[in-house]
Amino acid sequence: MADLVVGDDGLARPTWASHDALLRDYYDAEWGMPVRDERGLYERLSLEAFQSGLSWRTILAKRPAFRAAFADFDPEVVAGFGDDDVARLMADAGIVRNRRKVDATIGNARATLALRDAGGLPAFLWGFQPAETPVPHSYAEVPTSSPESIALAKALRKAGFAHVGPTTMYALMEAVGMVDTHLVGSHRRGSSGVWA
């Protein structure tokens, strides 16, 4: 299949994860594995928002700097960020310096804390897990949004979150194992334990 490449290790991976060591390691160990803790989900939500309009490779390479800049994505700490922190972030060449995305990350931390009284971010996000997952044989069969990601984006915006469009939320759902869009034939298909 043209969209899968068998590596020297004999494992089939999608082309995007087959040539770059950073992307390959991320694909093999992290992408599509269930994330169910508040900090982990807040981090993924934040990074997906920063990725909008950029390559995931760019964000992944900057992830250590993002973690340092945003207090390891501790929502309680980030929720307390003020003008001095925004100025610091906008001067940090290690991250993506986009004011709207920086503001959204801080606002989303506050929205994350506000969700605690209603069961928390993990229960909120995972409440939009679909009943079925795609079974793609090629990239062309991988959706970029779904009814669930559209509903999730709308619900998050209503809860005070920003930079949470349907396509970004679908990418989040893929990244945290809520759907399994590993191509059929990939060594990772079904590895999350969420989908048989």
Describe the protein's topology.
Blueprint: E1 4-6, E2 12-14, H1 21-29, H2 38-51, H3 56-69, H4 75-79, H5 83-90, H6 99-115, H7 120-126, H8 147-158, H9 166-175
Antiparallel strand pairs: 1-2
Shape from CA axes?
globular
The overall number of domains is: 1
Instruction: Report strand %.
Output: under 5%
**What is the overall pLDDT average?**
96
Q: What's the CATH H-level homologous superfamily?
A: Hypothetical protein, domain 2
The top-level CATH class is Mainly Alpha
Q: Strand tally, please?
A: 2
**Which structural class do the helices and strands define?**
mainly alpha
Rg for CA atoms: 17 Å
Query: Any idea of the CATH topology?
Result: Endonuclease III, domain 1
How far apart are the termini? 22 Å
- Share of helix, binned: 40-55%
InterPro entries: Adenine_glyco, DNA-3mA_glycosylase, DNA_glycosylase
GO molecular function, one term: metal ion binding
Protein name: DNA-3-methyladenine glycosylase I
Keywords: Metal-binding, Zinc
